[in-house]
Each structure stands twice: as structure tokens, then as C-alpha cells.
Design goal:
VC0802-like, 207 residues, alpha+beta
Length: 207
């Protein structure tokens, strides 16, 4: 793989750098200094900073010239709506039995070794009773943010990344995140709820 392609692959790991390149508001040499160690680790040799800077500049110019995909992301975000639900509990276990399906909010995500159920606090005790093996964690006082997007979201890459890319810079920890067709469900700690909601709304407004 060429050095230019390696630089693009490394830069693409950083959504905020991609946004800056796409908008033409970053210093190419500063970006090159940032990604140079990772590029060198990937290619297994020292690389010249000027070569990396050139690769970053060309990548930025291509991103600025190819706006179709970016506009598709912006259209989806602009048409998305966000709602907030408080008093949510996250319960993680190695195995659940028959999880009750009470009225109200609940979603379940199963991985290879763990299953997490997020539900209203009114239902949490009943859900916890369904744990058949080890209760790994129960976290109370959470807030669930649900983003409802148009159907196009299932065919447009990059929407979810754009939604949450600012969370890290705002020091917002995502406790849980999942999607169900056109709904994106983001669970955060109660203290971060307002900031997370404002961050998402600003992202949608400036998309």
C-alpha cells in the first residue's frame, strides 16, 4: 500500500480531523505531525513529514471536492429529531432467562458473553430478577436519548459517527449506544444529559 493511502487510512480514524479537512479549516502540517507516528508504525519505517503533509493536503482537497456523500449525511441529520427519557437503568448479566416485557421503555443488546437490558427504573427490579447467571453490573440514574431519523439513515454511512463525534471533546461518556432501524438510542449518565442533548441539537442545526 502506498504512503498516501496509509496516511488516508490513519486520518480516517479521526472524524474530527475529517470534518476539518472537509471544511478546509485545519493546518495540514499540524495534522501530518499528529498522524505521522501512526503512519510510521503501520509502514514499519520512518517517513518524511513533508510527504505526509502532501498526502494530507491532497486528501483534504479530494474531500472538499466530493461533497455528495457529506451532503447526504447533513440531510439525514437535519431531518432527525431527538427526545430525552430520564430515570433509566442499565442491567448487564452473563445470562438472562425470560425477560419480562412490561409497559414502558426497554431495549436489549446481546453480545458474545454479556447481555445488557436498558429499561425504565419502574421495571428494573423485575428485569434484574430474570438474571439466571451472573449479574455483572447495574447502573441507575441514567438518561436515554432517542434520535429518530428519516429512512435514508440505513443507506447513508457516517451519520452515527457525526452524531457522537463531539461527545469526547465535551467529556460526555456514552454508557450504551445501539440502533433499531431509524432510531438511535444513546444512554448517558444523568449529569451529562443536558450537555449531550444540547450537543446533538447543535450538531443537527449546523449540519
Amino acid at each position: 500500500m502506498s504512503l498516501a493511502q496509509e496516511c488516508r487510512d490513519v486520518v480516517s480514524r479521526y472524524p474530527y480531523i475529517l470534518d476539518g479537512l472537509r471544511e478546509g479549516i485545519v493546518n495540514y502540517r499540524a495534522v501530518a505531525r499528529h498522524v505521522k507516528p501512526e503512519v510510521e508504525e503501520t509502514v514499519g519505517r520512518d517517513v518524511d513529514i513533508e510527504a505526509v503533509t502532501t498526502a494530507v493536503r491532497r486528501f483534504g482537497e479530494e474531500l472538499q471536492g466530493d461533497t455528495e456523500e457529506y451532503e447526504r449525511v447533513r440531510d439525514v441529520l437535519a431531518d432527525s429529531r431527538v427526545s430525552l427519557r430520564g430515570n433509566v437503568v442499565s442491567i448487564t448479566a452473563t445470562e438472562f432467562g425470560d425477560v419480562p416485557r412490561p409497559d414502558g421503555f426497554m431495549h436489549m443488546v446481546s453480545g458474545r458473553g454479556y447481555t445488557t437490558v436498558v429499561t425504565d427504573d419502574d421495571n428494573a427490579d423485575e428485569v434484574e430478577e430474570a438474571v439466571e447467571d451472573e449479574l455483572v453490573e447495574r447502573v441507575d440514574d441514567l438518561t436515554c436519548i432517542t434520535v429518530e431519523s428519516p429512512d435514508d439513515i440505513v443507506n447513508v454511512p457516517g451519520v452515527l459517527t457525526r452524531m457522537v463525534s463531539r461527545f469526547s471533546s465535551e467529556e460526555i461518556n456514552i454508557v450504551d449506544i445501539t440502533s433499531c432501524y431509524t432510531e438511535t438510542i444513546i444512554v448517558v449518565e444523568k449529569r451529562d444529559a443536558v450537555k449531550a442533548l444540547e450537543t446533538l441539537e447543535e450538531t443537527f442545526e449546523t449540519a
